[in-house]
Structure formats: structure tokens, C-alpha cells
Amino acid sequence: MRLPDNHRRSLSATAQVMEDTLDQLEDLLNRNRPDRISERVHASYTPGKRRALLEAVSALRRANEAMFQALELEPRRVDESQVVEAMRSYLWTVLEDSRPHALTGYGELSPAEQTVIERHVVAMLQLLPRLSVK
After folding, report:
1. Of 79, 78, 91, 77, nearest to 131 (Cα)?
2. What are the tens digits of pLDDT across the range 76-111?
3. Strand partners, 36
4. What is the dihedral of CA 6, 12, 18, 19, to 10 degrees?
5. How many whole angstroms separate alpha carbon 119 and alpha carbon 124?
């Protein structure tokens, strides 16, 4: 079934979000997600529950693929440079929102706290241009 272009783009985006999220869930449940400095994953499912969840992920993945094929959707084609630039821009926004003056809604910071936060955030902001290869 060939849908109008706007609908196809929207549903292709839905399929991509589904696929990305299911990949993350599968990695988590298969314990393919290493600990990071900002997150430690604690295994809390029994083997039986883990198997059931992985089966649900597989069923959702098959349903997503069926929708993609039935509606004749097409994969989005992007250059890796577009993806890197979008991620660099996202990181810039996150870091700018982490500067002391942007954190005032969370409460007061001492001048010393502001200085330490600003130093670390600015250091990362100064490294971001290295993600932009022209």
C-alpha cells in the first residue's frame, strides 16, 4: 500500500524509533550494554522473565518490519556527516544548558561550585569543534 509522502515520512520515523528502542532493549536484556561512568545497570530480571521480555522485543521487531513492508516505507538515507553534526549540535545544547547560569532553576550555587562547573562544561564545549571535520 502506497501512502501519501507525509504519512510515509511520519511512519518511517516511527519505525526508526521502534527499531532504535528495541535495539537498546535487546542490548540491555542480553547484557551487551557495558557499565559507563554515568550509569551502572543492575540485573533485576530472572532468566525466565528476561527470556519473556526478549520474546516480546522480537515480536515487536517483527510487527515493526511487517508494517514497514506492508506500507512500502523506505529507509531514510543519511550521510554520516549529517549524523555527526546533529549529535555535535545536540551535545552543544546539553552542555550550554549545564552552565551555572542555566542551572539557577535548580537552586543556588556557591561561587566556588559555579567556577568548578563552568570550568568542566567549558572544557567540553571547547572540545566539540573537533567533532566537526570540514
Report:
1. 91
2. 888 999 999 999 999 999 999 999 999 999 999 999
3. 39
4. -160
5. 9
C-alpha grid cell, residue 46:
530472572
39 bridge partner residues: 36
User: Which stretch of DSSP H or E encloses residue 75?
Assistant: none
How far is Cα 56 from Cα 107, in angstroms, rounded to an integer? 42
Helical (H) or strand (E) element with 72: none
Q: Are 45 and 53 in contact (CB under 8 A)?
A: yes
Burial per residue of 41-67, b for 16 or more beta-carbon CB atoms within 10 angstroms, e otherwise:
eeeeeeeeebeeeeeebeeebeebeee
User: Do residues 78 and 17 make contact, with C-beta atoms less than 8 angstroms apart?
Assistant: no
Residue 87 to residue 132: CA distance in whole angstroms: 10
d(CA 119, CA 49): 45
d(CA 9, CA 4): 9
Q: What pLDDT does 76 receive?
A: 86
